[in-house]
What we know:
CATH topology of the largest domain: Trigger factor, domain 2
CATH architecture of the largest domain: Orthogonal Bundle
CATH class of the largest domain: Mainly Alpha
Number of strands: 11
Oligomer: single chain
Largest sheet: 5 strands, antiparallel
Number of domains: 3
Amino acid sequence: MNTQVEDLSSVKKKISVEVDADQVNEEITSVYAKIARNAKLKGFRAGKVPMRLVKQYYAGQMEQEVIGKLINDTFFKAISDNEIAAVGEPAIQDSGELSEGKTFTYEFHVEVKPEVENPDYSNISLKKEIYSFDDSIVDSQIEQMLDSRTQKEAVARDDVQQGDFVTLDFEGFVNNEAFEGGAATDHELEIGSGSFIPGFEDQLVGMKRGEEGEVTVTFPEEYGSDTLAGKDATFKVSIKEIKAKVVPELTDELAQEFGADSVEDLRAKIGENYAKQEKHRIEEDLKERLMAQLVERNPIEVPESMVERQLDFMHQNITGRLKSQGMSLAMMGLNDEAFRTMYRDTAVKQVQGSLLLEGVGSAENISVDAGEIDTRLEEIAEMANAPLEEVKKYYSSEEARKGLLAQIEEEKVITYLLGQAEIKEISKEELEKEKQDANEEQE
Length: 443
């Protein structure tokens, strides 16, 4: 077997293969013998057809089987012999004619990683948001927690106020005629929620318990029912009960229900969690800025197969997250094809970034030792609250371990680059203004 390799681009190679005539003859003979064992032709018993007739009537089947076998038996060897680090499935492009006593030729294309030589990562300058603690966040989260424990209690006053929960009967009329779906009994409505037609809830404010009255509204032009859209309507209403939302007082006892020892401890835990999330967000934002600058400085072509795998990973990650929230891509107005179109540029940049980090790691001889892997496995087990042995078992597979090694190495390279970079800390407001100005320039 002879092979010839040609670079089509920085990420694609063409391999031309020539299979020896002896191997071709051997395969043709073998396949014809296999076909002959079961060949059927009129006038002959199965398996007793003369070989000259087998060749006459089954040449097409033989050719298809032999070509498939010759390619399957040689193209992986061609990749291996030429030390080609393929990153995608080889694609057969062309094949020659198959004839006894002659060599058989074919060619295929295969994608490879681009060679990242001398990546530019010197004198990197970055902006980093200054971390600042916001007490109002703690107050806001406590307010939300208390709101989740609110109860509705009947009020002593007789008049309806904003924020009340009113139980009422109502019936709607257009041109003095009741319309379908316009009536309800013992319906509970939160005043100010905006869940009814605009103007309806506001007109209930000030009405008394036990009072009957009328509310006049105009259905919006874009209302779902064509028979009601844009029409004036009158609702006869009867106020039956008025309740107010009662927010519980935050006490040590209630704080304990939220998993804290006291009110002070609850505030401290919320603050610690908020600080941890904010610091993580700031660090991730800094890393994104680093990667954006690295990619901008080192534009490289990336294999399509790697982009597609990254899109698969992103799709799986995002759909899983949406599912955990009771949502789906369809609820966001996206199908699989639209998702891949929307996130393609992001996937390309992520692949470029990963390849560049690999290049920097190689240039700086950054590697991962066994102790670092063990430490990471312990961290994963602790975070997942899973037995360490189970985690080790999962990462014992070649694919999982390879992915973990790549992740740890990327993190080490990023840490190295951040350590070499000039980092200027600025306020959140300054950073947001810079982002806004950059977006306006792009537009």
